[in-house]
Design a protein that fits this description.
It contains eight helices and 14 strands. By secondary structure, it is an alpha/beta fold. The chain has one domain: Ribonuclease Z/Hydroxyacylglutathione hydrolase-like (Metallo-beta-lactamase, Chain A). A seven-stranded mixed beta sheet has the order 6-5-4-3-2-1-14. A seven-stranded mixed beta sheet has the order 7-8-9-10-11-12-13. Helix 1 links the parallel strand 3 and strand 4. The longest helix is centred in the middle third of the chain and has 12 residues. The relative contact order is 0.16.
């Protein structure tokens, strides 16, 4: 019997390639529900796929680009005004998260960062390679290569005896080896098929390093139009909006 369910609320890039929603991964166990990244389309995805925002206990952020954390101001506003949240919420991510989130909220909804919430909000700034216990989850961040104004992370997440690793956005870096090695599920960016660009991972490079990573299961995500036209020819799994897998 599976203990974890992983649902892709958004599997796209920053530019809406293929009409896909922005990055947001929902992980559900018996004891907790959490998001890995929270792109700006998060509430659209939740309404579309019937996910109750108040069911989310935690949000883990890989890096501070809008298509990965820009949905949090919308999530917070919904929690206060629409969903009437009362349960605590933990938001964990790179150093600088608190300041960047406050700035983003003020740009998008002036005054919103100063509103007294009806629920407790805890902001946790993670330290590289330091395991952090968050309720039923242990998350370990690894610094990768993706310029975003703050340290970008790959996230290795332990929950219910399983390991889920998410690469975040990054060019190939050896930091991915300890992050992903032996993971039950490795969710990896594959932005282009074989075009190598700075700060992003292409499919060919990823596959050439797969033996060192040796995950039990690989799912590709955050794909450009270049990759989306090739999906039917790929010998591995790939994410789609609404896709659910059990671990």
């Amino acid at each position: 019997m599976s203990t974890l369910s992983v649902m892709f609320l958004g599997s796209g890039d920053a530019f809406g390639s293929g009409g896909r929603l922005q990055t947001c991964i929902l992980v559900r166990s018996v004891r907790c529900h959490f998001l890995v990244d929270c792109g700006t389309t998060v509430l659209v995805a939740m309404r579309r796929f019937g996910i109750e925002p108040n069911s989310i206990d935690m949000i883990f952020v890989s890096h501070l680009h809008g298509d990965h954390f820009g949905g949090i101001p919308f999530f917070m506003l919904d929690a206060q005004l629409i969903s009437k949240r009362t349960r605590p919420l933990l938001i964990a991510g790179p150093p600088g998260l608190q300041q960047r989130l406050t700035q983003t909220m003020e740009v998008l909804f002036p005054g919103s960062s100063q509103v007294q919430q009806r629920f407790e909000v805890r902001i946790l700034e993670l330290e590289p390679q330091k395991p952090q216990t968050c309720g039923e989850v242990i998350v370990t961040p690894y610094v990768v290569q993706h310029a975003s104004g703050a340290p970008p992370f790959a996230l290795r997440i332990a929950c219910e005896g399983k390991i889920i690793t998410y690469s975040g956005d990054t060019e190939w870096t050896e930091a991915l080896i300890p992050a992903a090695q032996g993971a039950d599920l490795f969710i990896a960016e594959a932005y282009f098929f074989d075009k190598q660009v700075k700060f992003h991972l292409d499919y060919r490079t990823l596959m050439s390093q797969l033996e060192m990573l040796h995950p039990k299961r690989l799912i590709l995500t955050h794909m450009s139009a270049d990759m989306l036209t090739r999906l039917e020819t790929l010998p591995c799994e790939y994410a789609e909006d609404g896709k659910v897998i059990d671990l």
